[in-house]
């Protein structure tokens, strides 16, 4: 773990506090936002953090309070946005932590390479992807993002920049560590080769939750990418009905002749932005129920080999800027949990409880995870993961989610910290068995808790 001590320029004046929220627009707080553009400026920004504590922030797509720091400093890392080296033969890239996955796709796809893991949005930074150890539709094949990191540069609390590699305790604490071990400055990533920028997609309907789980268990191994949209408002015999969407990168010979002239073109479609003000209740039980019914009915019973753009398959919501506004000023909670294989009965109980509570979620997805990742606070573990968006003002929501937390913990599962804004600290300990190791390393590396966030204070991380 080589370390360097870059010289720090004089500190800039401390900016006035600015309000910040996560993508769910809940739990707002104000912080002094500093935007370094070089490694040296990042070191200097630690002087601002020294008095108030600080946390790194990317593009603000963490749903909860992980990238907020009430009364303290927040380092906006989007100013460190350079792609330094692309090795098109070896399939690696060296880039700053503030580079977005969208930008990587723009520069890498023409060379025949794709990011190894992408979540439901491409507007996340590399540093955020490592700090949250993000996962995608391919976890059952490729694992989480940090599994594809060759090395990273980490600015720690003592002002040292350390080269951190997989297999070390510091790497395992940083991958999924929510920015609490230091500021990720840059990383070297391994990429995935592709022949085209299109996906070959199979779609099918599942009649209920048991039918869905049976289909995923029997055939997921055939696909690199797999996800199921699930109707959580359906009840009775239809509880858990779903639409499965699975596929892989289309080979060149699968493209029609007209598309082979520019097989690696990347032109995501952009729709008008959501309005700044949306009244509360727009996404209520009636409207979401109607949407879910139409979405399920319009899906084909079985369709194979459809060609789709990358953006349509991976990031359909990115086509609507500020789509998070549609939940109204009260915002929304994204609740995501995982329970292990063998705990299917717990998953059934949770789905039935959500359905009985009539939670109006039109963004609910079920996936299967593969092997666990090495990060001590990494979310994925072998099992079933369900993510759903719920309007934050739904009556009885807090009590329901507390009950679900208990159900998940009892089943040996966990919730995703990058999407959390409400978990209780006593429940966290039952979900993450390596939490004591994380706290011990963090205490030795950062004894004054220079790096802190609203999340870390709430959960005593």
Identify the notable features of this structure and list them briefly:
461 residues, alpha+beta, eight-stranded antiparallel beta sheet, six-stranded antiparallel beta sheet, 13 helices, 24% strand
How would the blueprint of this fold be written?
Layout: E1 3-4, E2 17-20, E3 29-34, H1 39-52, E4 54-57, E5 73-76, E6 83-87, E7 92-96, H2 101-108, E8 113-114, H3 126-131, H4 139-142, E9 149-155, E10 161-164, H5 169-174, E11 183-190, E12 192-193, E13 198-206, H6 209-219, E14 225-230, E15 242-249, H7 285-298, E16 302-309, H8 310-314, E17 332-340, H9 344-357, E18 364-369, E19 383-391, H10 397-410, E20 414-415, H11 425-431, H12 435-445, H13 454-459
Parallel strand pairs: 3-5, 4-5
Antiparallel strand pairs: 1-10, 2-3, 6-7, 7-11, 8-12, 9-10, 9-11, 13-15, 13-16, 14-15, 14-18, 17-19, 17-20, 18-19
Helix pairs in contact: 9-10, 10-11
The Rg value, from CA coordinates, equals 22 Å
> Could you tell me the mean pLDDT?
94
Number of DSSP-assigned strands: 20
Class computed from helices, strands and strand pairing: alpha+beta
Termini separation comes to 24 Å
Enumerate how many helices there are, as a single number.
13
Short note summarizing the structure:
The chain is α+β, with helices and mostly antiparallel strands and 461 residues long. Helix content is 26%, strand content 24%.
């Amino acid at each position: 773990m080589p370390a360097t001590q870059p010289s720090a320029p004089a500190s800039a004046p401390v900016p006035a506090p600015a309000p910040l929220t996560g993508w769910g627009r809940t739990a707002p707080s104000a912080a002094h936002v500093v935007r370094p553009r070089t490694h040296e400026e990042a070191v200097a920004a630690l002087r601002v953090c020294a008095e108030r504590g600080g946390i790194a922030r990317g593009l603000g797509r963490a749903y909860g309070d992980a990238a907020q720091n009430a009364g303290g400093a927040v380092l906006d890392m989007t100013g460190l946005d350079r792609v330094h080296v692309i090795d098109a033969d070896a399939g690696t890239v060296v880039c700053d932590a503030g580079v977005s996955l969208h930008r990587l796709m723009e520069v890498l796809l023409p060379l025949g390479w794709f990011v190894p893991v992408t979540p439901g949005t491409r507007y996340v930074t590399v540093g955020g992807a490592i700090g949250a150890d993000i996962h995608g539709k391919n976890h059952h094949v490729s694992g989480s993002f940090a599994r594809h990191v060759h090395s990273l540069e980490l600015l720690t609390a003592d002002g040292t920049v350390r080269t951190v590699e997989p297999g070390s305790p510091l790497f395992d604490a940083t991958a999924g560590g929510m920015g609490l071990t230091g500021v990720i400055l840059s990383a070297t990533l391994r990429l995935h080769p592709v022949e085209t920028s299109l996906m070959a997609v199979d779609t099918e309907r599942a009649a209920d939750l048991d039918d869905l789980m049976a289909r995923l268990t029997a055939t997921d191994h055939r696909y690199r990418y797999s996800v199921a949209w699930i109707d959580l408002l359906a009840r009775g015999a239809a509880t858990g009905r779903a639409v499965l969407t699975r596929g892989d990168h289309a080979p060149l010979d699968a493209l029609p002749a007209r598309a082979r002239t520019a097989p690696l073109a990347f032109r995501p479609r952009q729709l008008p932005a959501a309005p700044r003000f949306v009244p509360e209740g727009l996404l209520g039980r009636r409207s979401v129920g109607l949407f879910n019914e139409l979405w399920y009915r319009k899906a084909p019973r079985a369709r194979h080999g459809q060609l789709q753009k990358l953006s349509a398959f991976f990031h359909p919501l990115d086509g609507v800027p500020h789509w998070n506004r549609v939940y109204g000023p009260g915002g929304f909670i994204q609740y995501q949990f995982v329970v292990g294989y063998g705990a299917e009965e717990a998953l059934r109980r949770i789905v039935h409880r959500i359905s009985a509570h009539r939670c109006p979620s039109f963004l609910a997805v079920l996936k299967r995870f593969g092997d666990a990742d090495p990060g001590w606070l990494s979310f994925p573990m072998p099992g079933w993961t369900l993510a759903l968006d719920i309007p934050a003002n739904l009556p009885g929501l807090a009590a329901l989610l507390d009950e679900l937390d208990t159900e998940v913990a009892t089943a040996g599962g966990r919730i995703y910290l990058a999407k959390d804004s409400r978990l209780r600290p006593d429940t966290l300990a039952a979900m993450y068995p390596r939490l004591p190791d994380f706290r011990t390393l963090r205490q030795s590396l950062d004894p004054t808790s220079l790096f802190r966030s609203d999340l870390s204070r709430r959960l005593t991380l």
